[in-house]
Amino acid sequence: MPGSTIMVNVTLNATREQNQVQYNYLALVLGVPLVLIIILGNVLVCLSVLTERSLKTATNYFIVSLAVADLLLAVLVLPLYVYSEFLGGIWTLNTYVCDALMTMDVMLCTASILNLCAISVDRYIAVVSPLKYNRNQFSMRQLLLITATWVLSFVVASPVIFGLNQVPGRDASVCKLEDDSFVVYSSVCSFFVPCPVMLLLYYWMFRGLRRWGASRKAKLARGERRFSLGLRGPRRERKAKYLVPGFSPTETGPGPTPESDPITGQADSASDAEGPERPPDSSPGENGLQGHVSGSGRGSSSSRVSGRERKAMKVLPVVVGVFLACWTPFFVVHVTKVLCVPCDIGPTLISVVTWLGYVNSAVNPIIYTAFNTEFRKVFQKLLCCQT
């Protein structure tokens, strides 16, 4: 009865495989809340920008693109990853689903960092050319940046879905990238090239803003000296005969109003709307101060834009820093595993760095809430269903 013997052997093998599966309940305990937090937080970010007029700025549309990448990760990638981790890393679905999962994973991770890179490019343009940068309207340049981000992300990940993972002798019970060269290639394109570019842009921006701050303080100091010198002559005349009509010793002349500090003097938001221009408070002939006040008015537009861009950058370095802290271990471990064959990198370490990378998608909305009062207020309004 060879047929019966084969059936018995298949049944025994299936039973042994079921007994060998060690369910990882910690993956469910951590994974399910993580998915829900990512979905809730990034939906709130998208709704905040799309429904609140004050948040509809160029920078925040990039943040929406970043939130969409995190949201898609939580919907398309994380549930299957949590399911596989719950089964102890065993893949029970077919290989085509695995390839789709790997493609989406690589694409969305690449989209996240390229979105951050696009934000840094946009911020750099805003700081270098503030008068030519319209921060309250979504321009064609920004649309092209976001489109290029998603197209490049798909190009980096596309070899997997087009059959790169279908190699001879593939273990169908494990879902991973089968081509080691692609692991290195995707890591370089997704992380090791964009990160230095992004960090260099932020370094140049902060250096430019530091120079701008020093120049601004020097101009204010020169303006105060001019003002004090301009008042010395009229004060001596008032002590003699009060030759200036309607100007008594108890009155104070119109002094130059110091510009508010870009960090503390602006509203605590990365998306302040442009305020109206204030006319100079001086009139012709007031101790020869009109030239100084007018000059300050001409420079106020540039100063105010620079101050707001400096304020807008308050949150973004935190987002970039947290992203690097979460994803650097992941890429370093995976590239090391490919390039260093003798290195003993076990599945536990790989699982830990992968979870750390996915946690980043839940952190960004928390950063916006903690560092941006406008986002915080809109989040509270949406959660409380206020109008």
From TrEMBL:
It comes from Paramormyrops kingsleyae. Residues 245-262, 293-305 have a biased composition (Low complexity). GO terms for cellular component: plasma membrane; synapse. The lineage of its organism: Eukaryota, Metazoa, Chordata, Craniata, Vertebrata. GO terms for biological process: adenylate cyclase-inhibiting dopamine receptor signaling pathway; adrenergic receptor signaling pathway; negative regulation of cytosolic calcium ion concentration; negative regulation of synaptic transmission, glutamatergic; phospholipase C-activating dopamine receptor signaling pathway; regulation of dopamine secretion; regulation of potassium ion transport. It holds the Pfam family 7tm_1. The keyword Acetylation does not apply. Its main location: membrane. GO terms for molecular function: dopamine neurotransmitter receptor activity, coupled via Gi/Go; G protein-coupled receptor activity. PANTHER family: ADRENERGIC RECEPTOR-RELATED G-PROTEIN COUPLED RECEPTOR, DOPAMINE RECEPTOR D4 RELATED SEQUENCE. It is a multi-pass membrane protein. Keywords: Cell membrane, Disulfide bond, G-protein coupled receptor, Membrane, Receptor, Transducer, Transmembrane, Transmembrane helix. The chain crosses the membrane at residues 25-50, 62-82, 102-121, 142-162, 182-206, 315-336, 348-371. CDD domains: 7tmA_D4_dopamine_R (cd15308). Residues 41-368 form the G-protein coupled receptors family 1 profile domain. Belongs to the G-protein coupled receptor 1 family. This is D(4) dopamine receptor-like. Residues 242-307 are annotated as: Disordered.
